[in-house]
Amino acid sequence: MSASDKTNITIIERDDRKSVRKQKRAYHRLFRDMNIKCTEHPTQHLMICNGGLVTGIKRETLQCVLDPLISKYTLTMPTGKTYCFVTCNSKEDATCVYNYIHGRIKLPGQNGPLYVCYTERVPITDYFVSDSAFPPGLTLIENFITEEQEKMLLETVDWDKCKNVIDLQSISWDQYGTVWSQLKYRDVKHFGYEFEYGTNLVNPDKPIVPIPQEYKFLQTLFDKHGHKYTYDQLTVNRYLPGQGIPPHIDTHSVFEDTILSLSLGSMCIMNFIKEDKRIEILLPTRSLLIMTGEARYAWKHSISPRYDDVIKTENGPTTQERGIRVSFTFRKVRRGECYCDFKDYCDTARREIFIDDKMASGLENSYVHKVYEEISNHFSETRCKRWPCVTKFLKSLEKGTLLLDVGCGNGKYLNGNQNVFKMGCDYNSGLIDICRKRNFEVIQCNCLYLPYKDDSVDAAISIAVIHHLSSDERRLRAISEIVRVLRPKGRCLIYVWAMEQHRNSKDSLYVKSGKKSKESENINESEINYEKISECNITLPIHKNRTVFPRSDMLVPWTKKSGERFLRYYHVFRDGELVKLCTKIPSVSIKQVYYDEGNWCVILEKCVERL
Description:
One of its GO terms (cellular component) is nucleus. One of its GO terms (molecular function) is tRNA binding. This is Alkylated DNA repair protein alkB like protein 8. Its cofactor is Fe(2+). There is one protein chain. By secondary structure, the protein is α+β, with helices and mostly antiparallel strands. The protein folds into three domains: 3-119, RRM (RNA recognition motif) domain (Alpha-Beta Plaits, 2-Layer Sandwich), CATH 3.30.70.330; 138-339, Sandwich (Jelly Rolls), CATH 2.60.120.1520; 357-606, Vaccinia Virus protein VP39 (Rossmann fold, 3-Layer(aba) Sandwich). Helix content is 24%, strand content 29%. The strands form ten sheets. Strands 8-19-16-23-14-11-10-9 form an eight-stranded antiparallel beta sheet. A seven-stranded mixed beta sheet has the order 26-25-24-27-28-36-35. Strands 2-7-3-5-4 form a five-stranded antiparallel beta sheet. The termini are far apart.
């Protein structure tokens, strides 16, 4: 504790009524937590009710208060608690401490004075529990670089200059030779290749400015310690006090095995988690953390967003304030897929999904048809507003046009414009019943087998339907069916969900409606939950609502008002995928392709057959 902190310890007049209230609350808390009773009569044992590690009080600070009062005592500070204990040599010493501190001593940084209770006993230890064994494959080298080298590295990164010249989105700026991002939890710079947080991927065919020459001495040090990768990607993170990073595993398919992270400027505690195991690792400044094997591929790592860490000292645990921490993380970009031994955590293994026609039928029955039967009324309540571009297409139709809405839902596009005759079809009986109550012309059918004659309708629309089909063959068949029933020169409009929920510097309404922070749309591979599909013997990722899509084949939740949750299958289309599918149909020409609020859209025209 500094001299200035000592002078900030103040003595105030005690408010007895408030002191009694604080003590009573502490009685209940202590008995609930540790089965220790407080007493109104003096004992050798004291609890400082609001002076624990969780409140940010250091052991050294309390020692500065106690040392002038008594010569011998034991200070016990349990981790994860807002209180601590003092055991004195005698009741007289305990009474002296009680009378001096209780309701009268205010420590620097605290909102109010300390409150004290007598207790029957104290816990035997500080309860500082941390597995001393590192995760397999994890190594920490302290003092990896000198203080002079640390200073040089920190001076090469000018964060303030970045903020003056760019907005808060991640963009490239060649005049400084890097890519800079400001995320919710930290500031980030990339060299060599940009890590795209929206998809958790790196494009190996799109390098950015390489790792600066002044950092090359680090590669020499890596070689000396046996890590002879030629690292080609560097991520520099800056964490202010109170910032951290959520639990995650670096994406397998993006980077090779060994990952090196150099801590500069300030220490911090990094958490390593695997299933029910949790290990806290103190990363001193200038230390190098090496993650390989199991530690790299199967253990999540994170930094809790807080202003201080609980660290272990010779006298017991205490708190250590965080400063500004900068990490230099070196990786080798992977070319090709990952073939590690940790399949349960590997994005490459999870992407290898093949769905044949038989599997597709079972998947769609359970995760599309049955789900929509359950949610049809709630779904209909949320589907009232027409999409402007669809309305524009409908208004372009000539008077007397016969329009077919394939997958009409609750019929929101079957209403209005009396000059066009409209009919619809849908697989879902609940939505068909809603349409019939509204006097719409509808039938129930499967979009793979439309019960209409060839060349029988003038125009068609299929809005947010094709993406529920789970194989290329079935998606192609559905579009072919729509084209089949079109008359020559008839047009159809098709909408499907896009994987790219960010486009032209804008977010789709789907992302915007749920965004709570700059980083809320970014999901790391290790944060994705999966569901085993017993009908197909495959596993699909469960999408987190209002975020970008990390996969093409997803299960998307729907929650009813009652809180009951259902999972719907979606195949979200990548840029160009819908067009590629349509070009396989020989009898159509593609008239227009566009992106509309998170959807890929295409207008097709059926060709006139040549004699």
